[in-house]
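Lab notebook, bench 4. Still working through the backlog of constructs that have no structural model yet. Next entry is a single chain of 235 residues. Request: give me the structure tokens for it.
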Amino acid sequence: MSEAMLSKVRKLLAKAEDPACTPAESAAFTAKATELIARYGVDRALLAARDPATDPVGDRVVDVVAPYARDKAGLLAAVADPLRCRCVRRRQGDGFAVHLFGFASDLERVDLLFTSLLVQAAHGLAGTPVPAGEHPAAFRRSWLAGFARVVSERLRSAEAGAAAEQGGRSVALVLADRFDRVARRVDEVYPRLRTAAPRRLVGGGFGSGAEAGRRADLGGRDVVDGTAGSRGITR
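Model written out:
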């Protein structure tokens, strides 16, 4: 992402994350930051359609550490899919090495968002008391599932809006082709890939996690220092 665009997103989210900011003001700043990130993704896709060398398909490995490594990996997948990237999860100690595939500009956007959202999730969990009678780990896993679900829906909506704004069907075809090319790269590297079985979560935190996902800043302010996946979540 260009320095100018990153600077705009940082300023918007710095305002949105200010404790003195009202919920309505925070939502407005967040919506604008999300719009800029989505528009950037479509602009880069259209540029690459004319000159593929500007945005090649690539991959990177993101280390996702305990605690709640599987839930963090789920959040990474929830961010990656709407941004036309694919994740392959590999067990690594008590965490995961997540092999992320996508076009360079989309990988950059995923890294930006995931790093920020991990921090936001950690803050959200720390500020959410576990109800009496709930198992803490089960509650927090379901909270993270709700958070990831809503974040993914919001990102998907922002991407669709940016594509429609830029030209509708022709843009949609370009974006679909990019998704297909990423899927083919995954198949080349992992020809025997298996889909993980769905999880059954029993905690009661899904609703409050979903509400936190609606308030989340879909961009990142502190994304230049540190490594994606290394931020902790309260036990």
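Notes after review: Confidence is low (pLDDT under 50) at residues 220-231. The chain has seven helices and three strands. Flag for follow-up if needed.
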